[in-house]
Amino acid sequence: NAMLTWQRTAYHFQPAKNWMNDPNGPMLYKGWYHLFYQYNPDSAVWGNITWGHTISKDLIHWFYLPLAMVPDHWYDINGVWTGSATMLSNGSIFVLYTGSTEESVQVQNLAYPANLSDPLLLDWVKYPGNPVIVPPPGIGVKNFRDPTTAWLTPNDNWLITVGSKVNTTGIALVFNTTDFTSYDLIQGVLHAVPGTGMWECVDFYPVATIGGIGLDTSVNGPGIKHVLKASLDDLKKDFYALGTYEEDTNTWTPDNPEEDVGIGLRYDYGKYYASKTFYDQDKKRRILLGWVGETDCNITDLEKGWASVQSIPRVVVFDNKTGSNILQWPVVEVESLRENSLEFDQVVVDAGSVVPFEIGKATQLDITAEFEIEKEVLERTIEADVGYNCTTGGGAAGRGALGPFGLLVIADESLSEQTPVFFYLAKDIDGNINTFFCSDESRSSEANDVFVKQVYGSTVPVLDGETLSMRLLVDHSIIESFAQGGRRVITSRIYPTLAIYSGAKLFLFNNATGINITASLKIWQMNSAFIRPYSEDQ
Ligand code: DQQ
């Protein structure tokens, strides 16, 4: 089936076959990036979860390795679930992961490499004293999972956090250890947010407020904020907030309580979940990985024989221009896949029109686009456009005075299949402009088994003097879209039936009624990455 074959991605990591979910234990060890991942070796749906293992020199080309850990003890027989790695300055590595026990109790287990001199870290030993942490009193035995990377306190203790909930309040519990084998629960919580439900895959890390470099997980002090991220089980979305970590009390306080974890910002406004960061000690950057699942149905996944991809790894920094969000940007290594670049300068797109690009195949692309609107025209528009949002605004077809305009990706010639990624400007009654960034899947597929076709998106801060800009990574069935240098990100999975192979095209569009747009673009065809089994002579 050509349509299903076409959906496999060319430069996003995915196993050769079967089901994958959360990224686990990422780290850079002896020159290799290691990525483990939740993996079902037997089927293209979730179950029988093991740790798949892959390595890369550049986070783009990957080599498959044998499974790192499988369910084989009473304390993880129902699944080797999500966990994280901690690298100590003495060279040792500790992995903590959640095991689902023979009674489906969630416990935390310790594992370590059998041989630290092996850069591939092929063999893993489970600590004989597992589990090392069991659900504390008052915590539901099925609501206690996904330990983080540990951070070191000034008095030489290691701390980790584990997500949970109490009633409907999402919480992050903290445990203290010195040897990674015995742990004490610290009284109180790192943070709690009522109404947010179970917190999965908590992540907690420092960001520098100036300088833009990444920080190792244990760094704290002046000029540092901490990001707290939780994956909300009820919503299947990753939420984060910026705040301050107090080491004395072991609490984290959000900068803006109205944008607390789970009620404010998201890493990605599309299909993206269970993400995790790690510190790249060689390139001094913090890298974010995230699971991008399918939005078609399980039966089709079984037919395809695979499900899910990982996002292109993203560098995370504090946005010191707005001061209120992080920036996410694809690792620079992805640019090594760029082939011939095509430049289109100052293309005028009149209100209500579509402009095609003759670029050959349009299924593997990296696109940067800037959009200009004459300032006087923007100021002249007096019409207020209150209450707009991406989800209810009618997508690319919902016309306003100042939007939508942007790109139509993976579109067929007749535009019956298309995924618009666009800006929409809405004036409030005081004449201020709110900018929205949206990805519209509603016409992305004519297949009759794709039930989730949403218009995703959010507002995006645009500061005085800034140009509207977006970057898109297009790879067959995934589109990762970044606005304003990564202030907002949206990932879409799409399942076209017509816009495949040479039938996939790219267009500019402007469906605003009151403005013409001037667009400048750079478009690169993207090479495929090598993603294949490891062999010695690579
Ligand atoms: N996936 C794992 C859990 C985690 C969930 C199981 C998040 O540890 O909470 O595959 O997707």
TrEMBL record:
GO terms for biological process: carbohydrate metabolic process. Belongs to the glycosyl hydrolase 32 family. It comes from Protea cynaroides. It holds the Pfam family Glyco_hydro_32N. Keywords: Glycosidase, Hydrolase. Residues 12-330 form the Glycosyl hydrolase family 32 N-terminal domain. It comes from the Eukaryota. The keyword Hydrolase applies. The keyword Electron transport does not apply. Residues 333-525 form the Glycosyl hydrolase family 32 C-terminal domain. GO terms for molecular function: hydrolase activity, hydrolyzing O-glycosyl compounds. This is Beta-fructofuranosidase.
